[in-house]
Amino acid sequence: MATPLNKRFSSAKERTGQWVFSQEIPTDIVVAVGEANFPLHKFMLVAKSNYIRKLIIESKEADLTRINLSNIPGGPEMFEKAAKFCYGVNFEITVHNVAALRCAAEFLQMTDKYCENNLAGRTEDFLSQVALSSLSGAVVVLKSCEALLPLAEDLLIVQRCIDVATAKACYEANFPCRTPPNWWTEELSIIDIEFFSRIIAAMKKRGAKALTIASALITYTERSLRDLVRDHSAGNGTKSSDAQSTNSQVRYQQRELLESIVSLMPSEKAAFPINFLCCLLRSAIFLKASTSCKNELEKRVSAILEHVSVDDLLVLSFTYDGERLFDLESVRKIISGFVEKEKSMAVFSGSGDFRESCSCSPAMHRVAKTVGTYLGEIATSGELSISKFNGIANLVPKGSRKVDDDLYRAIDIYLKAHPNLDEIEREKICSSMDPLKLSYEARVHASQNKRLPVQIVLHALYYDQLKLRSGLDNDRSTPDAAATRNQLQADVSLIKENEALRSELTRMKLYISDMQKGNNQAGTGSSSKSGTSGHKKHTFFSSMSKTFGKLNPFKHGSKDTSNIDDDVAAMDGTKPRRRRFSIS
């Protein structure tokens, strides 16, 4: 009995020595498979393998002692089992090795045509009777075929596995026999995306429901892209070092995988939960997926935006480390697409004013509130410009907000996080908010907020005064915003008119003063008389100035300016004329 004294003998020789070298007949050929060497007998191999027989017959060497079979499917492990079969040694065929054995048998031409009950027939029987009798078996065999292409495809092993897996998955989706009911999606998630795509396409042809396809895609995505698509409830503060440290090759493979998954999605937009779509879209942005891939995901999120939460939008907005804003273009497209969808629905519903109908829809109200809260969450970012802030805030129709408290909170947070804004910039950031639609508490806060522009503070103060004066502040109820806005505009015009009146009176005082100086310079009378006369005129002018200074059209709450008399006319002895100073 030979012993493995030479180090060049591989471990394969040691293993096969237990069943080969026990023979009294010495070996006469060495089969090399990769780094493994198998000392065997020619007559045992030739009896079962037509391929080896041809090699020996067609060899130019008189006595062939070594052949190389490194390209055999399955490598050394499968050749060892094929050699055992040639020697009549028992070994186990399983779902994990049956495909490789079938391919190795085909490579070695160990078919029933060459010898009855050969290895190819044995593996075919196991495939049909055992491996392909269940979904789990078919999936495992299909997984093993990934390393056996294209031979496994040529032998129809792949197609048979796909057909069985498709039929079993559709049956389990409709009539689950195990718990949890979606266990079959876990089974399918282990295979390559190419085989998975073929199963999904076959399920669609069989009429599988959109939710069934979506369930399989969600499970597959969460397993194959677990570093990118994970628990979205973690928000924008969860870090993912794996996602940041992946090299370009891994990133390329992930991008290809993601685009393939998106292409498999059923046409029904509402088949997927919105949080899953948001995670998928963030991954697409991070991986720099194709424009068509991102557009498809944006349309799907936009179609069901009324179900979105603030956390879902934050998933789209921040990088995986939560330190930096992504490009907000996707968020803008999503909101814009939703608004356009609502407008289209309002038009086709036959509403008279589609803008008002769109703004009053419950879905639009929910989205408007979510967007306001979302702006408050991202307002602290130094990368958020005023144009981007207003660009998102103004996408939602102003009529869809019952109150602007959420938007006011977002503006206040932005002003606090950006203290170096000038007055004009602060007015720009506040332009998206309607001060008349703030609640009582928000108006009280705004009236004392030093960060707000003066114009917004005055609006808040005047609004409360108007309510108190009109008696509409019972139980802190909110009057009609449109009527209040009209009243405010009318009162603002009166204020401007009052300011014009004051300017006119000031000019008159200056005119009288100039006349007085001219009279003093032209006077040639005695100094005492002139002094007495000058003193009297100065006293009269001073009293008139005080009288004009006390004029206030809004004193005691009156807005009537028709009773202001031109007392200056009394200086000329003419009849006073009723006059109203205004600038049209």
From TrEMBL:
Work out whether the entry's keyword set contains Aminoacyl-tRNA synthetase.
Answer: no
GO biological process per UniProt: protein ubiquitination
Q: Where is the BTB domain?
A: 27-95
Q: In which pathway does it act?
A: Protein modification; protein ubiquitination
Q: Where is this region: Disordered?
A: 517-539, 552-584
| Database matches in InterPro entries | BTB/POZ_dom, NPH3/RPT2-like, NPH3_dom, SKP1/BTB/POZ_sf
Q: Which UniProt keywords apply?
A: Phosphoprotein, Ubl conjugation pathway
The NPH3 domain is annotated at 182-467
Q: Which SMART domains match?
A: BTB
Q: Which domain of life is it from?
A: Eukaryota
Asked if the keyword Metal-binding belongs to this entry, the reply reads no
For bias kind Low complexity, which ranges apply?
523-533
Q: Which family does it belong to?
A: Belongs to the NPH3 family.
Name of this chain's protein = Root phototropism protein 2
